[in-house]
Design brief:
Dimethylsulfoxide Reductase, domain 2; alpha/beta; single chain
């Protein structure tokens, strides 16, 4: 007779990947007797096509990780030591409420939330949490750490980020990966680009580093970090000079072309080549290829906007499709994000009306180190969720000094004891995506996604939404919104367009125009003029140049600083990590090995650096030790430290953000300048 266990069916639960990735895959969670056996990608969801990245394919390893936080914890050691004792949920919530109440009564702005995209879910992201902080009157957080510069540049030129449909990628005849290592950051887009390549498309990579993606493209243009805006202007110069533009499209659907022509005239290929550290022939060749190939698609990503002129770089690149009429084709144009396709009711989610007319100060998350160490109007309580700032924020030395303040009351909601959790006074265990309900708005395709809980929460873990409900009730907040269920919140987020229960049952719903619709073939851009704004009065009103221009990096390789720190350092994501997520998953960390520094053979020889040996990488902000890989994947004058490692899992307890700056922000969007970073390297 078969055992009951053998007879138990395997249930298939529909979910959605919550991580900060444009692909937002449709998950199928295989569950037997309440245990998740594995996670696979849905073959019925067109963008996912049955495939998951190496990270999410191991999601059960992460969910059932032996170091998973399962109970509330209270600090018993010094900050940073990571020593805690187990306490009850009631004790934890009451302790937090008792600490926050007098601050709220005195001045609630001394309390600050810190969160980002640890989950992209709308329910477990900024819903109940923001209702809590709005009622409290806490300081607001300017969430700038990733995309705000590029978003600002795109909006000034094209309006909302309504990128092309990734399902049409294989129809393009030219695909330019601009600051995008799709093999690491968008594997499903890459699969379709590979199909386009098999059908005869040309693939071009523009990246200071010969990434995995660049290696598999026909051409790699290895420009210096922070010079993307100059390259875009050089392309404009050649396109206009050689009459490779679509004059009809320019005349009907753009604004300010004559002014743009005069500006682009200043950026001839020789000048741009010198700025970018490439050849004039590369600029001429790319311009002619772009101006004569249709459909032509630019897949831009946010790496190239992490420099002082990052907003301008995105703005300049966004001008190119209009010049050549690439928007006439459904598979042509530019894809930075598809987030502008989705009508999410942010007010229903976050309830800003609960501020009741108050206007709290706003603190930039990219300068959290400065904010925590400020003497005037100090932050005295910090609640961190969906983020790991001690690892991911720039200028780590300053950030850790701020988190180490004994008078700072810090609460961290987490899955694991991260670098940030080590500095917490209270750690609260949060559920993973397999254990809670959510709705996810993607930024790489056209499908709103639902996530169904597949298993019961492990241990005493609770969803973010429930944790903030408990805190709200402990603080005496009486608004009925604090009793909203997760289902109610999800429906409120999408109420203007969709029935969440229907989306939940199907797993997803496609939005936007029908497939193969060239959305901007006849203009209709979400800008004040309804056109592509080469000349932007809105930019001028913000004190910015109304025309595309070149803004040199703050830490330019030609500057005085370069005499002491002559190498430009970038720290893009490692293939097996996603920002600081998955770093503690043993199988993935084993694949990465340890933190490495890629350095060009000539730069290595000049410093006596031997492959496989450790080196010291340093500037005035700090130093760290990495093992050297001597390789021409790093162009001359540039070193690459793939990131973001948890500090405590690195050899010397540091990561690349020991060297990045929080003193200079981007030209638009007040974002960090992670890739605007000069260093020196010496052999150890």
């Amino acid at each position: 007779m078969a055992s009951n266990d053998a007879a138990s069916p395997v249930m298939m639960i529909k979910g959605a990947c919550p991580h900060d990735c444009p692909d937002t895959c449709a998950l199928e969670v295989h569950v037997k007797d309440g245990v998740a056996l594995k996670v696979t990608g849905s073959s019925l969801h067109a963008p996912t096509a049955g495939v998951l990245c190496t990270k999410v394919a191991r999601y059960t390893e992460r969910t059932y990780h032996p170091n998973r936080l399962l109970h509330p914890l209270r600090r018993v050691g010094k900050k940073g030591e990571g020593r805690f004792e187990r306490i009850s949920w009631e004790d934890a919530i009451q302790t937090i409420a008792r600490r926050l109440a007098p601050m709220a009564a005195q001045n609630p702005e001394q309390i600050l939330p810190y969160s980002y995209a640890g989950t992209m879910g709308l329910v477990q992201g900024e819903s109940m949490s923001m209702r809590f902080f709005h009622t409290l009157g806490a300081s607001l957080l300017d969430r700038t750490i990733c995309t705000s510069a590029g978003t600002a540049g795109h909006e000034i030129t094209l309006g909302s980020r309504i990128g092309i449909d990734m399902e049409l990628t294989d129809e393009a005849k030219l695909i330019i990966f601009w600051g995008s290592n799709a093999i690491t950051s968008s594997v499903h887009f890459w699969a379709r680009a590979q199909q386009a390549k098999r059908l005869g498309a040309k693939l071009i990579a523009i990246d200071p580093y010969r990434s995995l993606t660049a290696e598999k493209c026909h051409t790699h243009i290895a420009l210096l970090p922070g010079t993307d805006s100059a390259l875009a202007l050089g392309l404009m110069h050649v396109l206009i000079r050689d009459n490779l533009i679509d004059r009809d499209y320019v005349e009907r659907h753009t604004l300010g072309f004559e002014s743009l022509r005069e500006r682009a005239r200043l950026y001839d290929p020789g000048k741009v080549a010198a700025l970018c550290g490439i050849t004039a022939a590369e600029i001429e060749s790319l311009a002619h290829l772009y101006g004569t190939t249709r459909p032509a698609l630019i897949r831009a990503n946010y790496g190239m906007q992490r420099v002082r002129g990052g907003g301008m770089a995105t703005r300049n690149i966004a001008c190119l499709p209009a010049l050549v009429g690439a928007f006439r084709d459904a598979a042509g144009g530019i894809l930075l994000s598809t987030g502008g396709n989705f009508n999410v009711d942010d007010d229903a989610l976050k309830r800003p009306d609960l501020l009741a007319g108050r206007r709290p100060r706003t603190i930039n998350m990219s300068t959290i180190g400065h904010a925590l160490l400020a003497k005037d109007a100090p932050i005295n309580a910090l609640i961190v969720y969906n983020s790991n700032p001690v690892a991911v924020a720039p200028d780590s030395t300053r950030v850790t000094r701020g988190f180490a303040r004994e008078d700072l009351f810090t609460v961290v909601l987490e899955h694991f004891q991260t670098d940030t959790a080590d500095y917490a006074d209270m750690v609260l265990p949060a559920t993973t995506q397999l254990e809670h309900l959510d709705v996810v708005k993607p930024y790489g395709h056209y499908y709103i996604m639902a996530n169904n809980p597949a298993i019961a929460p492990l241990g005493e873990a609770k969803p973010n939404s429930e944790i903030f409900r408990l805190l709200a009730h402990a603080m005496g907040f009486a608004d009925p919104c604090f009793s909203d269920s997760d289902e109610t919140i999800a429906q409120a987020a999408v109420s203007t367009d969709w029935d969440f229960n229907a989306v939940r049952a199907a797993g997803w719903k496609r939005v936007g125009l029908p497939k193969r619709t060239a959305r901007f073939a006849d203009g209709g851009f979400d800008t004040p003029s309804g056109k592509v704004e080469f000349y932007s009065s809105r930019a001028q009103g913000l004190g910015l140049d109304p025309l595309p221009d070149y803004i040199a990096p703050q830490e330019d390789t030609r500057s005085q600083t370069a005499t002491r720190f002559p190498l430009a350092m970038i720290s893009p994501p490692a293939r097996n990590f996603l920002n600081s997520s998955f770093v503690n998953v043993q199988s993935l960390r084993a694949s990465e090995g340890e933190p490495w520094l890629d350095i060009h053979p000539d730069d290595a020889a000049a410093r006596g650096v031997v492959a496989g040996n450790y080196v010291r990488v340093f500037n005035d902000r700090g130093s760290l030790e990495l093992r050297a890989r001597v390789t021409d994947r790093a162009r001359l004058g540039v070193v690459v430290g793939l990131s973001i490692w948890w500090r405590k899992l690195a050899r010397d307890g540091k990561n690349a953000n020991e060297l990045t700056s929080s003193d200079t922000l981007t030209d638009m969007g007040r974002a960090p300048t992670f890739y605007d970073c000069l260093v020196q390297v010496e052999a150890l």
